[in-house]
Amino acid sequence: MKTFLKILTLFIAVGAVGGSVMMWMDPTGVSWGGEPMLDQLRAKMPWPVVLFKNFILSGFALLAVNGLPQFLAALMLFKNHPWAYRTVLACGIILMLWIVLEWWIWGFVAGDRCLRLWR
Questions:
Q1: pLDDT number for residue 32
Q2: Nearest Cα residue to 67 out of 3, 12, 22
Q3: Among 57, 96, 91, 61, CA closest to 74
């Protein structure tokens, strides 16, 4: 179980860092297909003009909320810290809340597509 958690936390952390770097390299989202998401973010989130002019702040949020805590949890697992499992649990809860926020903003698009394929 511990090996699985190490792999999982590192996978999530590397993905979050990669997503953050992607948002910083092209803050408009044109090259990676994120440009239409800015309008949806502006429509649903508070302070749209300040927070969602581009994806730079979103990249920092992704790194701070998912990237760094997951790296911390992985480090704690590798060091056999007594609070490692509690940290992994907290990171899992944070990730679930992040996903719920994404569903609230964009809806459950993948689920709709899968349901249409099965009909």
A1: 82
A2: 12
A3: 91
Question: Among all chains, which residue has been given the structure tokens 């805590």?
Answer: 69
Interval 19-54: pLDDT, tens: 999 999 999 888 888 888 888 888 887 887 777 888
- Provide CB contacts within 8 A for 106, sequence distance 6+: 37, 40
Closest CA to 15 of 79, 48, 54, 63: 63
- State the pTM of this model: 0.81
What pLDDT is attached to residue 119?
Answer: 56
Read off the DSSP letter of residue 95: H
Give the per-residue pLDDT at 82.
Answer: 96
Read off the DSSP letter of residue 39. Answer: H
Backbone angle region of 29, left / alpha / beta, with phi > 0 → left and psi within -120 to 50 → alpha? left
Write out the two tokens for 65.
Answer: 């909320």
The CA-to-CA distance between both ends of the chain, in Å, stands at 37
